[in-house]
Amino acid sequence: MIKRVNTFISIFIKVFKTYCDVFVGTISSIIGVYFFFASNSIKISRQSISMVDSAQFTPKLVFGGIVIFGFFTAIKGIILVRNNRESYTKNAISKQDVDAFKRGFVALFSIAIFIFLIKPFGFIIAAILYMLFSMFFLSVRKGWKPVSYAIVSISVAIFSFYIFKKYLFIQLPAGILEGVLK
């Protein structure tokens, strides 16, 4: 089973390395087009004098630029693939590439778990757990510093919560610490 997963990951990495500019260009163009048209729904509180004065101008400018950037990136990727097709098929995927992909996937999955833990446990607890996991997962085992990791995780989580609450006026979920935090 593990060999099949590693083979699938190797094929995925090879395809993505070959066509990464095409993928990134196409996806960014699609996202840019979506948000370009979604910016039409921005409510305008007063009639604008010119098109530049409108609240819709900057989002349309930014997302229009993303569409153009994505289009040219995809075209560049297609040209590169056509010109270098032989070299792409000869490159082998190493075990380190597969392991790096797995680590990246676990890191992204841990972010998703962090997002789901925020509401029931609260921002501070979820952030501490996420940072501790990330520090232990991304460092070499013989270089682990559990006390330092705990101090940094607790400090950053509490400081972030405080900054969001007092200065940015954004109420993050307190979760199980509801009565403790005021």
Characterise the protein shown here.
This is DUF1468 domain-containing protein. The chain crosses the membrane at residues 20-37, 57-79, 100-117, 147-164. Pfam families: TctB. This protein is mainly alpha-helical and 182 residues long. The chain has two domains: 2-90; 95-177, no CATH class. The chain contains six helices and no strands. It is flat and about 60 Å long.
Structural class: mainly alpha
Beta-strand content:
under 5%
- What profile does the largest beta sheet have? none
Q: Poorly predicted ranges (pLDDT <50, ≥5 residues)?
A: none
N/C terminus separation? 51 Å
Average pLDDT number: 83
Radius of gyration equals: 23 Å
Helix content: over 70%
Provide a count of the helices: 6
> What is the total tally of β strands?
0
H/E element order: HHHHHH
Domain count, please report it: 2
Shape label: flat
List keywords for this structure.
mainly alpha, single chain, 0% strand, 182 residues, flat
Give the SSE layout.
Layout: H1 2-38, H2 57-83, H3 85-90, H4 95-121, H5 123-138, H6 146-166
Helix pairs in contact: 1-2, 1-4, 4-5, 5-6
Structure, briefly:
The chain has 182 residues and is mainly α. The protein has 6 helices and no strands.
